[in-house]
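pasting for the record
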Amino acid sequence: MKFIEQSEKSQLNEITDGQLSCVYQDIHQYFQKIRAVFEQKNICTDDTVVLESGNSLPGAVTLLYLLEEGCSFLLIPGQTTVDNSNNFQEYFPLFCKYKIRAGYTGSEHHADFCPDKLLHVSVNEKYSGRHRNIHPDPKLYLRTSGSTGSPKMAVHSHARLKKNAQNCVKRLGLNSNSRIAIPVPVAHMFGLGAAFLPAVAVGASVDLQAGANLLRYLQREKEFNPDTAFMTPVFCETLVKGRRASRPYRLTVTAGDRFRGEDTFSRYESLFGCLINLYGSTEMGAMSAACPDDPPDMRSRTAGRPMDGVKMRLEKQKNENSDEIPGTGILWCRHSYGFEGYIDEEGKNTGQFAKEQDGWFCTGDLGKIREDACIEVLGRKDHSVNRDGLLLYFADVENAVKGIDGIEAVAVMSGGQSIRGEKISAFCVPVKGSGISESQVRTSCFDIMPRRAVPDEIIFLKSFPMLPSGKIDRQKLSEMVSGQIHNESD
């Protein structure tokens, strides 16, 4: 299946990572070099492999090669720079025969794409034929983020993955003239299915950025001059705080956690132009998004309308009082181009998806479906608790606490019981040098929110534990609440 559709207009457009670049007309020459390495290592197209790749050109081209050749593979994040020790056994499912690490060795400068130097192959010592995962068509396996529990492996067919990418091209208005910055991991569905594959599908110029911080991003922005960017809400907030001068983009797309400030959306648009929040997941890919020409009020409050082939519905929570926000419920999705199910470490189907209702998948998110069919995502179902008999959303508490002078960021978690119901803890990152104390934050909470919303404890952290996807690692925060691990300020 061809993911790269070349045209005369896009042949000289490039994919770059800041160290190496290639134009589209040369990609199939690079494929021939990769094929030679695979033949040398006895890797066949029907072998399932692990591709460990950061946002590097070697990783991106190898990813495209595996898709073009119809190979089944598990994509996991890795470092742009890798060692050459062949010690690759950290994560190696039994059904995968080989692991391929794609990246640069140390600080060595590479003037050309040389797969024999940039692809590092190891053999799974625990692999046997009985663990082989056999499917009638090629698959991509993606691990779920594990932000609220144990990660799983979701199965996507190449055909559905391509349709998902085409949905994003259509909804976001991407074309061969687009210059797209991708500082989010390509090894996760947002960076892969909504950003990289749609960009490649139209032959757009692409700048892949690994571990982007503000200074590095601004330097790459100056060199590449993007008109479109895919970012996490946290990085959007970083841009708003770190660069006051305006710099218009045609489009910025975010996904993942909600913005932590009520005015972040309007402040970002005033400086950098059109902002869209895309709603998706590892399992369902892109479910909904607004169009760039939709009005700002719609784009700021919603994740737009469902994509082609997507249906959404609400299911009222059982034994929960959600009347506080009428019309809310748990969002369910049926997607023609979504995933096919989960597999375990041996490549066997777990059957978890089969338990869902007639092809409908429970997203685990609380939301609303407006009369205009736009989707409002309020937060995770497990990011809310009953307090004093009413439903309390973590996001509402987080936004209120973040409004306290001296607080940089907030994440709320639950665990245990209090006199008001489930106990809630607010993890706070204070502004450096603010001098604010945990007791001062809790005192301020009584002045700005109802008693049931006041956190039972305030816990200061220097920074949040983060997942490679750019989301807060809430599993680690939950372990802090339960006392399994200590926070860094202890």
